[in-house]
Design brief:
mainly alpha; 8 helices; about 280 residues
């Protein structure tokens, strides 16, 4: 049988191209895993930023608190002028209530912020332990690296490469969310006392409550992320039968009905037993 050199050359070239594609896709996948692992370790480091007086914003508190005190004094004068112009008790009441609220923020804000962030960190770890069976992001291993022997064909390699690019996007998204969250907590912790100065006026009381809501949203971001991720992991790993049964979508097995002949024979047996009992 004659040897086809062009066929052998084509097969060799196809094998080389397939091996090169597989190696490139594997490199992309493993690189995505490495980047995601590095990002998860970074998340562990910035999960609980220090908001106390010994933290990075400790020296800034002295400045922002004095600015807040000066601003609240100025705004109190403005509110008094408004009250005199309107000649109503509502403006005076807003001034007194706002002054009490500002005093509470002045004395308790730093401790409240530190306690809230620590509580959210503990809630995040509790959810991770319950849903992901880990207590740190760096301990979570959703996938394992692949080798060339695990890839059966080029299609699988291409799909793996696409998944690797998705890992890159996930890592970038996690980085942006967590870094923005840490920066927001530091900034809001420092400027919220200034925003609280607006509590003594009708036009400025919304400043504090907006800052207050943003601070809580930033603090609760990690628990919500873990909750969404954990629910997705549970849904994709729990057996289908258990999920359907728990959701009430799986029918219970029906009781087997006996044929009419069996029912008639059973009735005759019951009548005979009843006749014997009456004769006795």
């Amino acid at each position: 049988m004659p040897i086809d050199p062009f066929g052998l050359l084509g097969s060799a070239i196809a094998n080389v191209v397939t091996d090169s594609l597989t190696a490139a896709m594997l490199a992309l996948w493993n690189a995505g895993l490495w980047v995601l692992r590095a990002v998860l370790e970074l998340e562990d480091a910035i999960l609980t930023p220090s908001l106390g007086e010994d933290g990075p914003v400790g020296e800034l508190y002295a400045t922002t608190f004095w600015i807040a005190l000066a601003l609240v004094g100025l705004l109190m004068l403005v509110q008094v002028g408004v009250a005199l112009g309107k000649r109503d008790g509502h403006s005076i009441g807003r001034l007194l209530v706002g002054a009490a609220q500002f005093g509470f923020v002045w004395f308790a804000w730093v401790g409240y912020g530190v306690t809230l962030v620590a509580a959210c960190s503990g809630l995040t770890k509790a959810l991770m332990q319950s849903l992901l069976n880990v207590t740190r992001w760096s301990e979570w291993e959703p996938w394992e690296p692949f080798t060339a022997s695990d890839i059966t064909n080029g299609t699988v390699a291409v799909i793996l490469g696409i998944m690797g690019m998705l890992l890159w996007l996930a890592a970038i998204g996690h980085t942006l969310v967590m870094v923005a969250r840490a920066a927001s907590l530091l900034v809001l912790a420092a400027v919220t006392p200034i925003a609280a100065a607006g509590l003594v006026t009708d036009f400025g009381r919304g400043w504090f409550w907006k800052s207050f809501r943003w601070f809580h949203a930033a603090a609760l971001t990690p628990p919500l992320m873990v909750l969404a991720l954990g629910i997705g992991v549970r849904i994709t790993t729990e057996p289908w039968s258990r999920r359907l049964k728990s959701a009430g979508l799986m029918r219970r097995p029906r009781r087997t009905r006996r044929p009419p002949a069996d029912r008639r024979s059973s009735a005759r047996s019951s009548d005979r037993r009843a006749g014997v009992a009456r004769r006795r």
